[in-house]
Design brief:
The protein is built from 13 helices and 20 strands. Helices cover about 30% and strands about 20% of the residues. A hairpin with a 7-residue loop joins β2 (about 90) and β3 (about 100-105). Strands 7, 8, 9, 10, 11, 13, 14, 15 and 18 form a 9-stranded mixed β-sheet that branches. Strands 2-3-1-4 form a 4-stranded antiparallel β-sheet, with helices on both faces. It folds into 2 domains: about 5-125, Peptidase S8 propeptide/proteinase inhibitor I9 (Alpha-Beta Plaits), CATH 3.30.70; about 130-450, Peptidase S8/S53 domain (Rossmann fold, 3-Layer(aba) Sandwich). With about 450 residues, it is an alpha/beta fold.
């Protein structure tokens, strides 16, 4: 692979106002030595604990590669005339992911890319929340109260899937603003919690909290239980939540990958990402490759709220399972929301025949009722609200994936993706799948369950 193919084009704006020796943070992805049997043959019970031991062994192997990489980089940098103190190099987490955080300059960027084990070099760019709207849909409440389900769960026929599984034993990591784990609708669901600060440091605490409302709302849609008035809000109410507060303060790519490493170390089966990078990042696909191919972890990513013709990284990576949003229209019709992003893309180095169409699927993402940290308002205390956004659609898919994995713990991520894609319903028929509004279509959990049980 040529050096240009290894270096992210997002470095151009990063170095546009830098001198030759000004330092910038970068994330480096390197080739990982394979460990036989790393992917689990089952997601539940003793085999899952065995899997975590293999993750630790994999990290030890990767640290050996890191040592060679660090030594080689410092030597090449000196040869190029790097001045001043040595450039800082740092392992991401416990070495679980084959990634390191290094300082680069305009002069030494090519030096790190030239290391034989290096796959990709990305700038440590800012990561932003895909901010939803918050709207009071008071006319929906009577309907949902009567049915005992949010309209999204009703539309997906989740209650029929609950006759087989409610997601018990599946670990869903939510990397977001945190979560108010003491919410009654999330009782006993948050099994682990960490805050990752802007320097990529993990801060553990016995108290779970949300720096906003977003993370709690997302967690409720994935694994929430009943509201006090009897409305079910969560797709997989028996799934476990692993919550990483990565969008607190000045969040960056380092913060995000540190959260991913933590999630894998805690046994995540699914990672929900309702966030985006500041610049388009074609090389983020390398990160997702590690999750899917090395650890058999499913990344579910919101596609963004920038309207048709636009997408957000990492949702527009070819291997992201990206989710758009639908809403209820007049006369009980469904449609893709105006804000839901989508596009057809040709990535650098690919031919026009390799067009990537996003999103992959759609799910309810407007007028979604879920829990939030208690909020004092003049009219009283509120612990639930409606929100709009593809951030609200993605957790529906993460919850559905948890149901499918629990129904067949031997199913791989590839099996789960196939089940959701192949059974999705496109309003204009299968010949239109995928397009850049509906993707493959609206997920059909009941039909996907049938398919996964045969995998």
């Amino acid at each position: 692979m040529t050096l240009d193919r290894k270096i992210s084009p997002a470095f151009k704006p990063f170095f546009s106002r830098s001198g030759d020796h000004d330092r910038r943070d970068a994330i480096v992805i390197y080739n990982s030595p394979g460990l036989e049997g790393l992917q689990a043959t089952s997601r539940l019970g003793q085999l899952n604990r065995k899997q975590l031991n293999l993750v630790r062994e994999q990290a030890q192997l990767q640290r050996q590669v890191e040592s060679r990489l660090f030594e080689g980089y410092q030597g090449r940098s000196r040869d190029l005339g790097h001045q001043g103190s040595p450039l800082k190099t740092r392992t991401v987490g416990a070495g679980t992911l084959p990634m390191v955080n290094v300082e680069v300059t305009r002069t030494t960027l090519a030096a790190i890319a030239a290391e034989p084990d290096v796959v990709a070099v990305l700038p440590n760019q800012n990561v932003e929340l895909l901010k939803p709207k918050r709207i009071d849909y008071s006319d929906l409440m009577p309907q949902e109260q009567e049915g005992g389900l949010t309209w999204g769960l009703k539309q997906l026929e989740i209650a029929k899937v609950w006759e087989t599984t409610k997601g018990a034993g599946i670990n869903v990591a939510v990397l977001d603003t945190g979560c108010y784990g003491d919410h009654p609708a999330l009782k006993d669901r948050v099994k682990d919690f960490v805050l990752v600060d802007p320097l990529g440091r993990r801060i553990t605490t016995d108290v779970t909290f949300d720096a906003g409302q977003h993370g709690t709302h997302v967690c409720g849609t994935i694994a929430g239980g009943m509201t006090e008035t009897g409305i079910a809000i969560g797709c997989a109410p028996e799934a476990n939540l692993l919550v990483g507060g990565v969008l607190v303060g000045n969040a960056t790519l380092l913060t995000l990958v540190e959260g991913m490493a933590w999630a894998i170390e805690r046994g995540a089966d699914i990672i929900n990402l309702s966030l985006g990078l500041e610049y388009y990042e074609p090389l983020f696909s390398k990160v997702l490759d590690i999750l899917i191919s090395q650890y058999d972890v499913l990344p579910v990513v919101a596609i963004g709220n920038s309207n048709h013709g636009n997408t957000s990284s990492p949702g527009n990576s070819y291997n992201a399972f990206s989710v758009g949003a639908i809403e209820q229209m007049a006369e009980d019709q469904l449609g893709v929301t105006f804000f839901s992003s989508g596009a057809s893309l040709v990535f650098p180095g690919q031919s026009p025949e390799d067009i990537v169409t996003k999103p992959d699927v759609v799910a309810p993402g407007a007028q979604i009722y879920s829990c939030i940290p208690p909020e004092q308002r003049p009219e009283g205390t509120f612990a639930y609200t409606y929100m709009d956004g593809t951030s609200m659609a993605a957790p529906h898919i993460a919850g559905v994936a948890a149901l499918l994995m629990a129904a067949n713990p031997e199913a791989s991520v590839t099996d789960v993706l196939k089940a959701m894609r192949e059974t999705a319903l496109h309003p204009n028929g299968g010949d239109r799948r995928p397009d850049n509004r509906w993707g493959y279509g609206l997920v059909q959990p009941v039909e996907a369950l049938k398919l996964i049980q045969m995998a």
